[in-house]
Amino acid sequence: MCLKGVKLFSIAFVTTIISIIIGFVLILGVYSLPTGIMNKHVLSSYQSFEESYPNTTPRVMGGKLDTFTDALMLLTASYEDDNSIYTKSLLNKRYFNKELGTDQLLYQMGRNPFDNQNLAVESYARYWHGYLVVMKPLLMIIDYNGLRFINGFVLLALIGLLCRQYFINNEKLYIIPLVAMLIFINPVSIILSIQFMGMITITLFGLLLLAKYRTYLIQHSLMLKAFFVVLGSLTAYVDLLTYPLITLGIPLAYWISSTNIGVKSNKQIVQDICLYSIIWGFGYIGMWFGKWMLATLLTDVNIIKDAYMEIIYRTSSQMGDTPISYRKVLSNNFKYCWGNILLLLVLFGGYVSYKKHKDKELLKFDVNKKHWPLLIIAIIPFIWYFLVQNHSYIHAWFTYRELAIVVYVMVVFCCLGNRKRVK
Length: 423
What we know:
By secondary structure, the protein is mainly alpha-helical. It has a two-stranded antiparallel ribbon with strand order 1-2. A two-stranded antiparallel ribbon has the order 3-4. A two-stranded antiparallel sheet has the order 5-6. It is built from 21 helices and six strands. The model is unreliable at 419-423 (pLDDT under 50). The protein is 67% helix and 5% strand.
């Protein structure tokens, strides 16, 4: 048992170190690109930032766009100074204005490109900003709206490839939870906000790899463990703290339900859920710490201290001087997804009515005790909300998407329990 633990730790540690090295090399590479044409394409997109936080679905609260963070990402991508490449890639500086949000600043910069009297420079070094590996090269040929178009193309392509793989695997039942999850997270706002695209891209790509190489991963359990470490590392590399747990919960729910249920005992399944969650967390936290270590050691800024102070703030149950209860955190997140939940219930009711009218049959579910461990995965978002209460309360308008894990798990649970329809 001890040797297995050491072996597992070694795999997680080595995989994370390799991820850190590759991530740093990639960031160094894109920071060596010229930013002149990037800046031109960024400023030409200024009209997209005239309105702050527009809502794609005015009658549904969960469709708000994060123009603030999208502008932050664009300004980070196009910023240039005289520092060395490794310093720029670790400190991730950008222009800012104390009186304006980043979206309004970008709008003003685009309207008056020669008025830079009120510009200051700010570093955002806690994050890897791994999205720059893709964004910087693309900004050399397209603008912000072009990036949105690519978002839509990538999302549709991944959905199509994943559905195709489910047909190949004879796993068509997983298309239903996939569609339900996508409806819940509001795909329109995902496409139009670059900030939100990273996590769903990693999730869908992870699902595709698990489905495509299912047999290989079953036979090579160490590769499967390394895969979940990489998922965690990639999440920390790309994300700016949006809804990161989705890259764990949904791939894990698919893997457990498609390979473990009916094969392993409930105890073994619970152990696997805990194991894969821990090694995902190892990659996630390890990747974060890797950035803080590199930035602190290779620059004159103590990023570890900065990150520590931010962790204390984001995990607190305070918002300024106002206390935040866990109940308020949950209430605030559910407030932004009731419309999506209602839509899913209406669609489900319509499907049941259609089947009843067409086949004169009712759906019947067999609650098998072998399926129950799957519901443990649905607890993951609530653990996250408890640990990161401040952030989950303030940013509930996008952190509610962590609850997509619950939606996916519950739909998978129902699909597994659907017995042959009877009259």
